[in-house]
Every structure is written in structure tokens, then in C-alpha cells.
Specification:
- This protein has 711 residues and is α+β, with helices and mostly antiparallel strands.
- The chain has four domains: 6-154, Immunoglobulins (Immunoglobulin-like); 169-485, Coagulation Factor XIII, Chain A, domain 2 (Alpha-Beta Complex); 497-613, Immunoglobulins (Immunoglobulin-like); 618-710, Immunoglobulin-like, CATH 2.60.40.
- Strands 2, 4, 5, 8, 9 and 10 form a six-stranded mixed β-sheet that branches. A six-stranded antiparallel β-sheet has the order 22-19-18-15-25-26, with helices on both faces.
- β41 (686-695) and β42 form a beta hairpin.
- α4 (205-216) crosses α5 and α4 (205-216) crosses α7.
- The longest helix is centred in the middle third of the chain and has 14 residues, at 286-299.
């Protein structure tokens, strides 16, 4: 008798996919389909032979292998013998298992039920089948069949034994299955949601995710750990060190690539990266890095969300403070006296991923912060996390990974220093703000996206930090300071001298694009004696990372007297003609006010920032759309400026019906109302999203989204 020959295999891709919650993946729906399976679950596969299977004489072993050097001890190889008498999987749930479900002599086929352990490596597995005849004399007759299908195995948040298990179904729906969402930008006073299409089920997304894992260099035996995978992704999403997915740029010059503002979703970035063989895509900024990280994580089955920290500290010297320096005339010294450049980003977007932390004490699992935006090296590589959110809140900065850096991002104190000729080191401290950093932390709320407003934002500040000014908040700060020697120098600083003049810089919440705004400081002399005040007001455009782009206007240094009990106001008006040509990305403006009291040497400084509000875009798709038929989308907005908009481009994208399409547009006249239509052909039925994003040289990121019902 000759050993069996395998003539065909069948993975029942769609049937298995429905059980594994992977039926939305385009790979499963393709022709031919590709299996996408979740670990910790079982799946059926059929094997067809050249003759009926004889359970007494035939030896059949099904092998699953992962990586270039599969090894059973390391968990990258599993061998499953077909035995008719085996009716149960192994008792150890971390072992692969195989049960022979049925045999069919008429079709020469068998059906096997396979259990994937909940610790299996994430990525592409291969399958091969060995056949032979029982008995010593047949030992050399073994036949090997290589199954042509790649088998994708991903995380399983539905499985309690998987370390990414997420109990709440609504959370799984949002953080695993939702293809669209928002990335929060703007300011803490006026958060604005940027519509984004994650597209984790697109045919390109899962292959790109696996390609990035391969390129990250993470050892194959480590790819069962969500901790190690998340850390690897935080490095390979940015191009520093390893030619990763996205190259960051923040100077406003994007002529040799795509402006970060122009992207509407992740799939165009992933397609460009794969089509060029892994050449970093130009360009990204933090919200783009975060959005693509959502796509990659969700494609791999790792629960993930995009989270925005407003007034996010970048502490370069591990002091847990953001140090800002000013000269005698009130001008900010950008790099400080020693070339160290701490900063506060107006907003910074990172990611939270959900997992247990077996490497940390109990209580530190759940949401973990990872950050793919290149800021600081961690173990000599540009990456950050996963840092336990619970550890950050408690100030437990000794726990892996990068907890001190993340703690500073949400808790650092802002310290202003002014040049002082009488000081030993040339500067003296003029103010400490304990409540400026981490003003608000937002993510998208569970459920539908609000296409017309921002009612879908969820304030999660309390998860990351205790309430500002509370005893718990200060205890967390001092707890962290104890673990950071450099920080202890700053937290021993003495309190300021008695102050008898009250200063208040009035916050500017929002300013419509193209209108005047006023910088206003209120003063009140609470002393029983006259006080002489010297004050300077200034405004500048800034990049959202906090560094100055262009000076807009500065008041002349003024000296005036306040009588006992007197109140007064300082103000400075800034017109569009003074700021329009000095704006950069996001249209952020920073205001500083600095004052000294001559008689008491009291010093005071305060800062405020805001963004100019973009015009509203309306988006409309009339009626229902049918699969395979043309459908029209129209959008409209008004140019708010008295000058033309030039270098205009808009992008239209929608998962399941429209790949990202970029269209160059004519110049838009001053105050003109723009109305434009585009046509797309729907490919998938159901409720889908479509996003339109308009960008010009003068105004970036006018965008909107709407639901489309496809029948």
C-alpha cells in the first residue's frame, strides 16, 4: 500500500470567519479566499486524498509552522496526528489540538477540527501535511504536502484566555470592529474631531501589519505577547532607526510628499508603503501616526484607540518640569541657556492598547499607552510604551515601559525663568504652573460617530491623572519625583515671595479664521502703597508641538503706576493682516504676558494659546446608493478670507466604496462659496461612511463626513 497523497485542502474561510469575528476582512471575501483566524478558538479544515483514509494503516500528521525556523519548544510549530480515537483536545489550553470530526469514503476526504492556543504567535502561519503507512518497513515512504494557503492568526479579544480579552461587547465593537472614527485635535478649550477611515479590514491592512511586524525585527517566539508586539509597533510605525512606515515632518514644507493634513485614512499610506517595498511614506504628524497605529492594531486583533492629551509636556531632561526661559526684554529663549528645549505640545495624540500585564504586579493591566510619534529614544530606539495607565496615574514610574516620560506628559509643572543679572546662574524663577499640563485627555466615545458635531468625544482625563489640585494628584507627582533624581532638584524649590499685585491673562477661547483678536491682562494692586509695573505682551504663531514659528506682534515695554486698590487693564489688538501670512499648520497662536513689580521685585508670567476656527463644510449624499451603481456626493464651504485660496486639493474616501482619491482644485476666490460634486461606485452594502478633506496653502484640513446607506 502506498501512502496517501493529498489532492486538495479546504479551510471553509467564510464559515470559520463568522465564528472568529473576521468575516469583514476583504482577504476572507477574496477569490480565492485567505483564512483569517483568531487564536484561542477552533476552526474546521478538510483534507482530500487520492483514496479513502484508513485509520488503522494510514499515518497523517498536520503541521502548523511559524517563522523561518519553526520549533516546537518555542511554540512556533505544532504537529497534530489524525487519530479516529481522539475525541478531546489536550487538557492544557496552551497546546494546539486536533480532532478528526468525520471521514467520507466517497469523496476520499476528512474534516478536522483544530484548536489554536490563546498564546499562539500573531502573523502568517503555514500548513503542511505528512502521510505514511504504519510499520517500520514504510519509514522511508513519507510524503509531504505543502498547503498553498497562508493562514493569518490574530489576537482574540473574545477569548477569556487571550491576554487581550475584552469583556464588554460594546467596547469590542468600538476598539476592534469599528472601521471609522475621529482623531481629536484643536485645543482643550475647543476640541475638534478629525474624521478618519481606519480601514483595518481592507485587503492591504493585515498584510501591511504583518510586514511591519517582520520589519520590526521582533523575534518570532515573541510575537505571541501583546506587550512586545505593541512595543515593536510603536517603533516601526515611525521611520526613525528602521525605515518604518511614516516619516514625520513639522515645518509646513511638504512639497516632496503628502501634507499630513491631506490624509483621510490609513489605507493610502499602507498601499504606498508596500508598493515601494517599504520606503517610508511622507509625511505624518502625531495624529497620523496614531491613526495608522489604530489600523495596524485592530487589523491584528489588538484592541486600540486614539487618545489626545491637550497641553502635552515634552520633558527632555527628566526633571518632570517644562522649563521656559525669557531674556531681560521678555523674549522667549527657544533652546534655553544650555541648549535644552523642553516644550508643551498644544495637543499630542498617542494610542491606548488593551491587555493584561503579566510582567507587572496585579492591577496594572487594562489600557496601556504606546506612542509611535518619534520624540525620545527608549533603549536606543525611537519608541514609547506600553506604559500602564494605572501606573501613570499613581506615579509608579519604575514600571516598564517609559512610564516616567508619559507621566511627565500629563503631569509636568511649567516653570518660567527670566534672565537675572543678580542670579548665580543668570536666571531666576518667575512662575510655576502646576495645572497647565494635561488639561484634558480625550478619545472617541463608544458608538456612532457624530458627523455634524463633536458630541462623540469622551473625556478620560480621570483615568490618566487625579484631579488637578487634589491631594492624590500632588502625591502622585511627589511619588514620581522620588523615583527621578533630577526632578527632586525642582520640587525642593522654595515658594515664591508674598505677592500683592494680582495679574490675570484673559483666556481666548476661539477666534474665527480671518477676524481680529485682543490680548488682555487684568491687574489689581492689593497693597496699601503705590506699585510700579513693567509689562510686555507678545503673540506668535507656533507649531502644535509648542515651538515658535513666527513672531506676530509684541507690545512696547511699558511702565506705569497703580495706586493702592486700583484695577487696570492692558490690551493689544491683532488684525488678520498681522497674522495671516505668519500662520503655520493648525493655525495655533501663543500669547505670553510678563510683568514685574519694581518696589517688591514680584515677577509674574502667564501664557495662553488658541487656534483659529476653520469654516464649516457641509456634505450630502442624496437618497440611497446601490451596490455597483454610481452615487453622487456633494460638499460645500465658504472661504472666510479676503484673499484667494491657492494650491487647493481635496480627498474623497470611504471604506467599502471609495479608495482614497485626490483631486487638484482651482483657486478659490475671496469669500467664495465652494460647491463641488464627486461620483463613486459602492462595493459593499450596509451603512458606510464617506469623508471629504479640503486643503489649501492658506487653510488646512477643512473636512466632514456623512453616513451613506448602500443597498
Amino acid at each position: 500500500m502506498e501512502p496517501l497523497s493529498v489532492t486538495n485542502t479546504e479551510f471553509y474561510c467564510m464559515e470559520n470567519a463568522k465564528l472568529h469575528h473576521t468575516d469583514e476582512y476583504d482577504l476572507v471575501k477574496a477569490n480565492p479566499p485567505t483564512p483569517v483566524l483568531r487564536r484561542g478558538a477552533t476552526f474546521a479544515m478538510a483534507i482530500q486524498f487520492n483514496r479513502p483514509f484508513n485509520q488503522d494503516a494510514d499515518i497523517v500528521r498536520v503541521r502548523f509552522e511559524f517563522g523561518p525556523k519553526p520549533n516546537t519548544i518555542r511554540g512556533t510549530r505544532a504537529v497534530l496526528p489524525l487519530r479516529a480515537k481522539v475525541r478531546r483536545f489536550p487538557e492544557d489550553p496552551n497546546l494546539w489540538g486536533g480532532i478528526l470530526n468525520s471521514t467520507n469514503a466517497q469523496t476520499n476526504s476528512v474534516v478536522l477540527q483544530v484548536r489554536i492556543p490563546p498564546t499562539a504567535q500573531i502573523g502568517i502561519w503555514s500548513c503542511s501535511i505528512q502521510t505514511n503507512i504504519a510499520g517500520e518497513k514504510h519509514r522511508g515512504n513519507r510524503r509531504d504536502y505543502k498547503v498553498p494557503d497562508d493562514i493569518y492568526i490574530i489576537f482574540n479579544p473574545w477569548c477569556p484566555e487571550d491576554s487581550v480579552y475584552m469583556e464588554n461587547e460594546d467596547e469590542r465593537e468600538e476598539y476592534i470592529l469599528n472601521e471609522t472614527g475621529k482623531i481629536w485635535c484643536g485645543t482643550f478649550k475647543n476640541p475638534t474631531g478629525k474624521h478618519w477611515i481606519f480601514g483595518q479590514f481592507d485587503e492591504i491592512s493585515l498584510p501591511a501589519a504583518v510586514f511591519l511586524l517582520e520589519k520590526s525585527g521582533l523575534a518570532t517566539e515573541g510575537r505571541g505577547s501583546p506587550v512586545l508586539i505593541a512595543r515593536a509597533l510603536s517603533a516601526i510605525i515611525n521611520s526613525k532607526d528602521d525605515d518604518g512606515l511614516l516619516e514625520g515632518k513639522w515645518d509646513g514644507e511638504y512639497g516632496d510628499g503628502t501634507s499630513p493634513h491631506a490624509w483621510t485614512g490609513s489605507t493610502a499610506i499602507l498601499e504606498q508603503y508596500l508598493s515601494t517595498g517599504g520606503t517610508p511614506v511622507k509625511y505624518g504628524q502625531c495624529w497620523v501616526f496614531s491613526a495608522v497605529t489604530v489600523t495596524i492594531c485592530r487589523a491584528l486583533g489588538l484592541p486600540c484607540r486614539s487618545t489626545t492629551n491637550y497641553i502635552s509636556a515634552h520633558d527632555t531632561n527628566r526633571s518632570m518640569t517644562v522649563d521656559k526661559y525669557f531674556d531681560l526684554f521678555g523674549n522667549k529663549i527657544e533652546d534655553g541657556p544650555e541648549g535644552e528645549s523642553d516644550s508643551c505640545w498644544n495637543f499630542h495624540v498617542w494610542n491606548d492598547v488593551w491587555m493584561t500585564r503579566p510582567d507587572l504586579p496585579p492591577g496594572y493591566g487594562g489600557w496601556q499607552i504606546i506612542d509611535a510619534t518619534p520624540q525620545e529614544e527608549s533603549d536606543k530606539v525611537m519608541r514609547c510604551g506600553p506604559a500602564s495607565v494605572a501606573a501613570v496615574k499613581r506615579g509608579e514610574v519604575g514600571y516598564l515601559y517609559d512610564t516616567p516620560f508619559v507621566f511627565s506628559e500629563v503631569n509636568a509643572d511649567v516653570v518660567h525663568f527670566k534672565e537675572d543679572e543678580e542670579s548665580d546662574w543668570g536666571f531666576s524663577r518667575i512662575s510655576v504652573n502646576k495645572y497647565h499640563v494635561g488639561r484634558k485627555i480625550l478619545t472617541k466615545k463608544l458608538g456612532p460617530t457624530d458627523d455634524n458635531g463633536d458630541s462623540d468625544l469622551l473625556d478620560v482625563t480621570f483615568i490618566y491623572k487625579n484631579k488637578e489640585g487634589s491631594e492624590a494628584e500632588r502625591l502622585a507627582v511627589y511619588n514620581a519625583a522620588r523615583g527621578i533624581p533630577r526632578a527632586q532638584e525642582f520640587y525642593r524649590l522654595p515658594n515664591k515671595d508674598k505677592e500683592d499685585v494680582f495679574f490675570d491673562l484673559i483666556d481666548i477661547d476661539t477666534v474665527p479664521f480671518g477676524e481680529d483678536f485682543n490680548v488682555v491682562v487684568k491687574l489689581h494692586n492689593k497693597a496699601n502703597e503705590e506699585r510700579t509695573i513693567k509689562a510686555v505682551l507678545s503673540a506668535s504663531s507656533i507649531y502644535y508641538r509648542g515651538n515658535t514659528a513666527n513672531d506676530i506682534k509684541k507690545s512696547r515695554p511699558s511702565s506705569f503706576k497703580l495706586k493702592p486698590g486700583q484695577e487696570d487693564t492692558l490690551s493689544m489688538t491683532i488684525t488678520p493682516g498681522e497674522y495671516l501670512d505668519k500662520l503655520v499648520d493648525h493655525n495655533f497662536i501663543k500669547v505670553y504676558a510678563i510683568a514685574t513689580v519694581e518696589e517688591t521685585k514680584q515677577t509674574w508670567s502667564e501664557e495662553d494659546d488658541f487656534t483659529l476656527i476653520l469654516p464649516q463644510m457641509t456634505l450630502n449624499v442624496p437618497g440611497q446608493c446601490k451596490v455597483g451603481e454610481p452615487c453622487v456626493v456633494s460638499f460645500s464651504f465658504q472661504n472666510p478670507l479676503n484673499i484667494p485660496l491657492t494650491e487647493c486639493v481635496y480627498v474623497v474616501e470611504g471604506p467599502g466604496h471609495q479608495k482614497p482619491r485626490t483631486i487638484k482644485f482651482r483657486n478659490v476666490n475671496p469669500k467664495e462659496v465652494v460647491t463641488e460634486t464627486e461620483t463613486f461606485t459602492a462595493k459593499k452594502k450596509g451603512e458606510r461612511k464617506i469623508v471629504v478633506n479640503f486643503t489649501s496653502r492658506q487653510i488646512h484640513n477643512i473636512n466632514a463626513s456623512t453616513k451613506v446607506q448602500i443597498v
